[in-house]
Design a protein that fits this description.
By secondary structure, the chain is mainly α. It has two domains: about 1-75, no CATH class; about 90-310, MetI-like fold, CATH 1.10.3720. About 75% of the residues lie in helices and about 0% in strands. The protein has twelve helices and no strands. The longest helix has about 40 residues, at about 175-215. It is globular and about 85 Å long. The model has no long low-confidence stretch (mean pLDDT about 80).
Length: about 325
């Protein structure tokens, strides 16, 4: 398996190179520039052209790309035009917030989705199953940003139960108060993200339980008098979790992608909000670095799904 993992990692390199070239070309085709209105509203066109020239933005795209690659191999992703600081440090600061928000969202997603899927599959065709299916159909039919806006309005503005912007309260001081404030700021966006993301996991697990329950080895175990509790524990559960294992890596990527909407609506200072601001302000260095990072995480999620699938089912091996 380790040889396969190494081969898959090596295959990621040309894929990321192609992705970086495409992103670099597309970003340069966007109208506007990173300096107009951001340095000085009264700056003349000659000053803007001078800034464009000294930053190499008038060079051919392939020359700019080559300079970027050379800097990349020296551990330098360039400086942000908007924030005037190194891109690596800027992303590292925001990545911490996105990581913890995504981590809490994933925990809540599986904490809600797994019991619901098992419960619905075990009570197929009954009222309990119908209620769970109605819930999944509703969450799948409503756009994610609508759920975020409604939740922000009801629980943030109307009931005033949770904060609706930032990642920590300005009044929080000390280690424990800061940590508790960060968790408090993440509860609402993480819960809304989890409620939206559970639909896929619930449906996959429900179908897995139903299929496993109707299989021949379960019928054989029942004929031998094995208690149903043991059948679920040793036979149905293990096989029902196969699609969840295959879905796990993609769930991580989906949560990170969904952070674009979450961080924008809740003004949460993470990588998603940083990317949207970079697009608005034509911050090419930040845009390229973040798309490359998201591309790497997508490829990594695919690999993790294959590995998790082989761990859950010993019959399946990544070869």
């Amino acid at each position: 398996m380790w040889k396969t993992i190494l081969r898959r990692v090596l295959i990621m390199i040309p894929e990321l190179v192609i992705l970086s070239v495409i992103v670099f070309i597309i970003s340069k085709q966007l109208p506007g520039d990173p300096f107009t209105g951001s340095i000085n509203p009264k700056a003349s066109m000659s000053q803007i052209h001078h800034l464009m020239r000294i930053n190499g933005l008038y060079d051919p795209w392939y020359q700019q790309y080559w300079n970027w690659v050379v800097s990349l191999f020296h551990g330098n992703l360039g400086n942000s035009y908007q924030y005037q600081e190194p891109v690596t440090r800027l992303i590292a600061e925001r990545a911490v917030n996105t990581f913890w928000l995504s981590f809490l969202t994933m925990i809540m997603t599986y904490a809600i989705g797994l019991p619901m899927g098992l419960y619905a599959g075990r009570h197929e065709g009954k009222l309990q199953d119908a209620l769970v299916r109605i819930y999944t159909y509703v969450t799948m039919s409503i756009p994610f940003f609508v759920v975020l806006v409604i939740g922000c309005w009801i629980f943030g503005y109307d009931l005033n139960l949770f904060p609706t912007n930032g990642s920590v309260s300005p009044s929080a001081s000390g280690f424990l108060p800061v940590v508790l404030s960060k968790i408090y700021h993440m509860i609402l966006p993480a819960t809304l993200g989890a409620l939206f993301a559970t639909s896929g996991i619930t449906q996959y697990l429900r179908s897995g339980v139903i299929d496993a329950r109707k299989s021949n080895y379960v019928k054989t175990a029942q004929a031998k008098g094995v208690p149903m509790k043991d059948i679920y524990k040793h036979h149905i559960m293990r096989n029902a979790f196969l699609p969840i294992a295959a879905f796990a890596g993609y769930s991580i990527v989906g949560v990170l992608g969904g952070s674009l909407f979450t961080e924008q609506i809740f003004s949460y200072p993470g990588m998603g909000l940083l990317f949207l601001n970079a697009v608005n302000f034509r911050d090419y260095t930040v845009m390229t670095a973040l798309v490359l990072l998201y591309g790497f995480l997508s490829l990594l999620g695919t690999l993790l799904s294959d590995i998790a699938l082989s761990v859950v089912d010993p019959r399946i091996r990544v070869e």
